[in-house]
Amino acid sequence: MNNQLKHNGYIGSIEASLEDNCLFGKVLFIKALVSYEGKTVAELDAAFREAVDDYLATCQALGQTPEKPCKGSFNVRIGHDLHLAAALAATRKKVTLNDLTRQALSEFLQHHYPEPCPAIG
After folding, report:
1. pLDDT profile of the chain (121 residues), mean per 10
2. Distance between CA atoms of 100 and 38, rounded to whole angstroms?
3. DSSP label at residue 104
4. Residues 6 or more apart in contact with residue 33 via CB below 8 angstroms
5. pLDDT value of position 114
6. What is the pLDDT of residue 113?
7. What is the pLDDT at residue 47?
8. Bridge partners, 58 (sequence order)
9. According to its UniProt record, what is one Pfam family this protein matches (predicted)?
10. Disulfide check for 69: which of 12, 29, 42, 84 has CB 3.0–4.6 Å away?
């Protein structure tokens, strides 16, 4: 089951409100609040696409660069011992700590989520 919407490189959540009898969501992994709602899945998907397109058009009109979901870097707090062990392992492998982390994440995702990640669009 897919519980996310995708359009133009953006990912949106799908939530339900029993109280309001509607579906709603927001664009994930950006700081700007871009939200949408609908009564049906089809309406929610159309509202999501419209919200993304409107966000991109607004950024263009204002001369601003739209945020990209997940800019490609993040900080991880792992504690001294794990940091030291990883730095030593990277040195032994003659790779950077970034490369070691990238390889470990890639291997984890391939092992736990073996299906190919669909292109976002």
Report:
1. 88 96 97 97 97 98 96 92 97 96 93 68 46
2. 43
3. H
4. 26
5. 76
6. 84
7. 98
8. none
9. HicB
10. 29
Give the N- to C-terminal CA distance of the chain in Å, as an integer.
18
Give the integer Cα–Cα distance in Å for 35 and 40.
16
Domains of the chain with bracketed CATH? 4-62 (no CATH), 73-120 (1.10.1220)
Q: Kindly state the tokens that stand for 33.
A: 């609040």
- Expressed in percent and rounded to 5, the helix, strand and coil fractions of the chain are 45, 15, 40
Residue showing tokens 């700007």: 32
DSSP-assigned beta bridge partners for residue 28: none
- The identity of residue 71, as a single letter, is K
Phi/psi at 52 (5° precision) = -65, -50
In sequence order, the 6+-apart residues with CB closer than 8 A to the CB of 113 are none
pLDDT recorded at residue 71: 84
Which residues in 17-35 are b (16+ Cβ under 10 Å) and which e?
eeeeeebbbbbeebeeebe
